[in-house]
Every structure is written in C-alpha cells, then in structure tokens.
Sequence to fold (255 residues):
Amino acid sequence: MYIYLYDDFIKKKKYDSLIKEIETQLTDFGIAGKILRLQPFTNTEKLIAEEIKKGATTVVIVGNDKTFGRVMSYAAYCKVYFGFIPVGPENTIAEVLGIPIGVDACHVLSRRRRVRLDVGWVNNRFFISYLHILPHAIRVAYDERFVVSTRGRNTMELVVCNLQPFRWKEKGGKDYVVHPQDGKLEAFLRPVKKTLLLKKKQFEEPSIFPFEEMLVVSDTPFTVEADGRQTKEKKIKISLAKKRLNIIVGRGRKF
Fold:
C-alpha cells in the first residue's frame, strides 16, 4: 500500500494542475494511495509508524529538498520503501537520485528500482542530504586519528555530504557528487581566507576526507544546519548510522 506525504507548500494554487496530473498518472499506473498533508508541526515519525501498522509498504514524499530532509531526519529507520516526487524549486537531491521533476517522476516510482543508501546520524537524529556548520572557530576530530582546528581568530566552514552534492562555486561551479553507498560520509573543510567588503567571505580550496565518526567542538556556540533545520551547538558527534535507507531511484542516478 502506498501513502503520499504532501508538503504544505503544494496547496498553493500554482501547483493545482500539476498535482492533478501527477495523481492521474499514479492512478493510471495502479499506484495511487492515501494522501496525507504535512503541516509545520507534523510528527512525521509517528505519522509514518501509524500508517505502517495499517499496512503501508511504500511512503512517497511529494515536495522538495526540504520536504525530503524533514521527513527522513526522523523516519529513515522505518521499515518501508521510500519514494520521491519532486515538485517546485530547490530540488538537487532528485537529480542525484535520478528522479525527474514533476509528472515524469511517476514513471520512476512505478518501476520500483530500489537501492539501500547510507544515512548520517547527528545528536540523536538522522540526516540524509547534508550537514553544514557555518564558518566558526571549531576543532574537528575524526575517526579517532586526525584533528583539525582553527588558530586565533580564524574560522572555517564544514560541510558533510551524503546525498546532496557539494558545490565549490569559486572553482568554476564544480559539483563534487559523493557516493551514498560506500559506508562512509564525506566532509569538506574550507578555512576562511579573508572577509571582503559587505561581509562576503572568501574561502580557501576545500580539503576533502571520508570518515565514519567525527566530533566537532567549540568554546562558543556554532550554527549547524542539517537537512534544512538549524540549531546552535557547542559540541556535536557526527557518524554513519547503523540503519540504511531503502529508496526508489531512477536509472540516471549519480552513484
């Protein structure tokens, strides 16, 4: 049984015709199902668990990167297959998974090409796409062997990628696409070289390293963004989760 989780932004009138077309296509493929609409404070973990008890076997997220991250940050451990129908802007994860935007995603869903993907774990919750620590004076220790830290007033940015590509725009817009099945997470560490006028930062070229476990600490709170959710922390532990995500992908996936 399929259930479809619609993000709240999809109720906007400009998406009406697209959603009707998607629902018609799903019906034609014989994979229509129960539609549940997410609200800002919906407990997705509890919601999906209740639907599994009722017989749900496939949960399809309808929305964008933020929708995907929001659902998966708490529900990745659920024993169902996950699908994705990308709608609207901000859809970089879809490209990595080989899923086209809009109606054509229904074809991918109907073919049920399934893979198992790595999942990140930070401070008692999952992250699927990426984790970003904004420039700050931090100390990074990973795999109990290596330590990197800032000096004096220097700061550095840390990005941990799983599904979402890392974009290094200052080097010609190159994307580093990581492999979410290699049993490792990939970290990109960029020291701040200098701050230009209007507070625009200029970074050194990133150092790239795979890891299984990382500890990040600071004397003062730093900003952490994981799958679109921001928090302030002074210490976080990042690791590869023991669970893996079962997800439906397209033939054009990037891994």
Remarks:
- The chain has a mean pLDDT of 88.
- Residues 122-240 form a domain with the Tumour Suppressor Smad4 fold (CATH 2.60.200.40).
- The longest strand covers residues 213-226.
